[in-house]
Design a protein that fits this description.
Residues 159-237 form the Signal transduction histidine kinase internal region domain. The chain crosses the membrane at residues 12-35, 41-69, 81-104, 110-132. Keywords: Kinase, Membrane, Transferase, Transmembrane, Transmembrane helix. The strands form 2 sheets. A 5-stranded mixed sheet has the order 2-4-5-7-6, covered by helices on one side. Helix content is 62%, strand content 11%. It has 341 residues and is of the alpha+beta class. It contains 9 helices and 7 strands, in the order ααααααβαββαββαββ.
């Protein structure tokens, strides 16, 4: 849904600058009156009032043009409509103000040259207003962009730190070694495969953690190895179904593994409630979907895993992840990258 247009009148320094400059300049240099006379001060009052209306009205026009024709869509349309609209508006206000003043205060008739002169002044007003306000607007956008970049950089650093913590997280290694000790004498063949898969997972973490992106197939292969380890631990109650595109697409390293890890962390896994995991691609997204069977006891969590993933995707490719929860199924969509970094 498109964002609703809102606007509030606020007198800022640009308004004050425009009001006082033209409120004094026009009556002093463009109106044939005696300087310091009562009529001169009356003209200053009228010119200041007209300038205020023009300045505030032009700000509203600028906001409307920005809403309907933003810079990002078309610079030419934006500037053309803005210059034309503000020029017409300021010309009408000037002429109406001049005629009103002439009818109520002065008996001097308004000639065509005076009208043209005021239209010229209104054109200067429009250009000055646009230059000042667009400059202030673009400076504000540039400043906001720098702050956003810095925020994303900080979040990316936090995500990297969290990722490094996971490398050293003793729980996964502790659980894996406990499982290994249980099978090493009972089933040496299974123990050998377990060690191979465990080494594959840790080798992947060490080799690819600092990379910007990895092929989807490579990430899936380590997720399959990770699920093999889980299935030895949970007696084949982690059901993994993978249907992905064969196209050369990429994801952020450890992004899918993180989602699988979260699914195991927050759900019960038992004979009656196996954990069903589905990984599939649609258009430009890879979805990681898991059945919901939440644990009765609250699992200790920092709650920043998905936030970090969101921050990493925004920082690297400028896109958000998608999160959907139907109550029975929880799934996360990760944007696919198509170019190799």
């Amino acid at each position: 849904m498109a964002e609703k247009f809102t606007y509030s009148f606020r007198v800022k320094w640009t308004t004050l600058l425009g009001v006082f400059s033209f409120g004094i300049l026009v009556p002093t240099f463009f109106v044939p009156v005696i300087l310091g006379s009562e009529e001169h001060f009356l003209w200053i009052f009228v010119a200041t009032l007209i300038s205020f209306v023009i300045w505030e009205g032009s700000k509203l026009i600028q906001a409307l043009i920005l809403y309907f024709y933003p810079w990002e869509k078309s610079i030419i349309k934006h500037l053309s409509y803005e210059v034309a609209s503000i020029f017409v508006f300021s010309s009408l206000v000037l002429i109406v103000g001049l005629l009103t003043y002439n009818a109520l205060v002065s008996e001097v008739s308004i000639s065509i040259s005076v009208v043209l002169q005021n239209i010229f002044v209104s054109f200067l007003l429009a250009l000055l207003f646009i230059a000042i306000n667009e400059g202030a607007f673009l400076f504000g956008k540039w400043k906001a962009s720098l702050l956003e970049q810095e925020r994303l950089r900080q979040e990316n650093l936090i995500a990297k730190v969290e990722s490094l913590k996971k490398q050293l997280d003793p729980h996964f290694l502790f659980n894996s070694l406990s499982v290994l000790s249980g099978v090493v004498y009972k089933d040496p063949v299974l123990a050998d495969r377990f060690i191979t898969k465990l080494a594959q997972v840790y080798r992947y973490v060490l080799e690819h953690n600092d990379e910007k992106q990895v092929p989807l197939q490579k990430e899936i292969s380590v997720v399959e190895a990770y699920c093999f380890l889980l299935n030895v631990r949970f007696y084949n109650k982690v059901l993994l179904d993978v249907k992905i595109s064969e196209k050369p697409v990429y994801v952020l390293p450890l992004s899918i593994q993180l989602l699988v890890e979260n699914a195991v962390k927050h759900n019960r896994i038992s004979d009656t409630s196996p954990l069903e995991l589905k990984i599939y691609t649609t258009d430009n997204t890879v979805w990681v979907e898991n059945s919901l069977n939440k644990k009765d006891t609250q699992v200790e969590s920092t709650g920043i895993g998905l936030k970090n993933l969101e921050a990493r995707y925004k920082y690297v490719i400028g896109k958000s992840i998608q999160v959907e929860n139907s109550g029975h199924v929880f799934k996360v969509g990760l944007p696919l990258l198509t170019d190799e970094a």
